[in-house]
Amino acid sequence: MPSLNALRAFSALSETGSYTKAGELLNVTHAAVMQQIKALEAFFDVQLAARSGRGIALTDEGRMLARDLEAGFRQIGHGVEALTNLQDARPLHVTMSPVFAVKWLMPRLNDFQSHQPEVTLLLNPSGKIVDLDKDGMDVAIRYSRLEALPKDANILLVLDLVVVGTPKLVSGVKTTSPADLVHLPWLMELGTREVPDWFDRHGVKLDRPLMISQMPGNLIMDAVKRSDGITYTARQWVHEEIQSGELVELFPEENVGVFFIHTRPGDERPPVRKFANWLRSQSNQS
């Protein structure tokens, strides 16, 4: 078989009737097209095209090859289009933490589905950081402390972080410093180290193991409201409960928690772009 580039160059020449226009079609110089045609003629040992006035005329052999190439490249185009449509139609796999899914994403999904009904979402709430390629995910909504945020991260939300508990649990407990919370029961999302890391950042030296119950993030707030323990969370997730007095906030930190959008490098498929753009639009509204 001759070079596919040479065949494509000849097909472009037969389509345009000009070395210059063929080069423009292929985004190469006309000299490059001429070189490819010469290589093709040398391969077949026949002349395929000749100058005719200001244009190019195909020989009988050239017209025969051009006809078959047109059919071949058209079939290739159909195959590429079919596979592209298949990829666009498959569900978009999205991973995020359970608490983010419950508190932020799920209440907004109806808007996305009404505007992009052709995109099917498959959500995978998990406290673990998954590998997009190995785990078959398309989009990850990930969390980071601001100081540890990856360079060039596609920021979605910046949040205030607080410790919260019921008045019943924290009343009567001295809360003048983070060390005062060592002896209280804590609730923490599976797969994270949020509570030990919180004490480390505040320079607290532990004199005993922490009382931590780990569970999926979407179960934590119900347990907090039952006074099963205190937790470290985003103020925006519990704003109404704090305002009503149902929960008490302790040691607030402003603008330190970040959720960001992570996709595979160079993944420009329409469903991925649509979902990422929609996420950013919802972030701007909130």
Automatic annotation (TrEMBL):
Q: Which InterPro entries match?
A: LysR-type_TF_proteobact-type (IPR058163), LysR_HTH_N (IPR000847), LysR_subst-bd (IPR005119), WH-like_DNA-bd_sf (IPR036388), WH_DNA-bd_sf (IPR036390)
Q: Which UniProt keywords apply?
A: DNA-binding, Transcription, Transcription regulation
- Where is each HTH lysR-type domain found? 2-59
Which GO annotations describe the biological process of this protein?
Answer: DNA-templated transcription
Enumerate the GO terms in the molecular function aspect.
Answer: DNA-binding transcription factor activity; sequence-specific DNA binding
Tell me if Transcription is a UniProt keyword of this record: yes
Q: Which Pfam families match?
A: HTH_1, LysR_substrate
Which family is it part of?
Belongs to the LysR transcriptional regulatory family.
- Please state what the protein is called: LysR family glycine cleavage system transcriptional activator
Q: Which organism is it from?
A: Yoonia sediminilitoris
